[in-house]
Amino acid sequence: MRPVVTLAYAQTLDGRIAAADGTSRWISGPESLVRTHQLRSQHDAIMVGIGTVLADNPSLTVRHVHGPNPLRIVVDRNLRTPLSAAVLVDGAAPHTWLVCDAQAAPARRHALQELGATIITQPLNDESTFAMQPLLHTLASHGIRTLMLEGGSRLIASMLRARCVDRVAITIAPKLLGQGIPAIADLGITTMGNALCLHEPRVTQCGDDIWLEATVRYA
Ligand SMILES: NC(=O)c1ccc[n+]([C@@H]2O[C@H](COP(=O)([O-])OP(=O)(O)OC[C@H]3O[C@@H](n4cnc5c(N)ncnc54)[C@H](OP(=O)(O)O)[C@@H]3O)[C@@H](O)[C@H]2O)c1
To answer: Domain total for the chain?
Structure first.
């Protein structure tokens, strides 16, 4: 058993989730932001990689609609989350979980726990990364049934490679960046026939943005 995973992010029309300098605010318009917060409030937990915390310092709370905050989870192998990070110090409940390697510095672990963080230790695989399926099973064992994956590029790729994304809700903004951070890092797909297919896409307009929802079909 693992949680149902919804991948949700905002990209420019040319597939960037941040500019070359790492800035991503704001790709999408206010209407899409409201819809994203609605989606957050419908999930048990929300997950980002440490790269996103370092780049954006997001709160990951529900603010633009009324609704419960999901549990916030940061995939942070070496516990690099700053002690001043919004996900730790903004006072929102429930407290944030940090997923790290057992070798992460004990002093760091202690300092983060002092701020209320829950530290979840996961084994690393041969590539010194977390295998996503076991990580999701761990989350399920803690009662998490639905997970919203918000980024960034490398964590999204890890989850897609592990076939762990069930559906997508992608905001496509009418903006172009050329250079920038691609929405999805390398998936190891080199030929069109192996492209991941999105099933039964539903496209709606959200302010000036396009909102695309679909389920992911794995070969
Ligand atoms: N537009 C949007 O909707 C949106 C949403 C989110 C983020 N962003 C943008 O995305 C950018 C960040 O993306 P990113 O790719 O640099 O960072 P990221 O995906 O947020 O985090 C990457 C880090 O997460 C950890 N990680 C990811 N997969 C892992 C795995 N399988 N096992 C262990 N650790 C794993 C690694 O940390 P360690 O290196 O410490 O091991 C990795 O370096 C930012 O510029 C942000 O603005 C945009």
So the answer is: 1
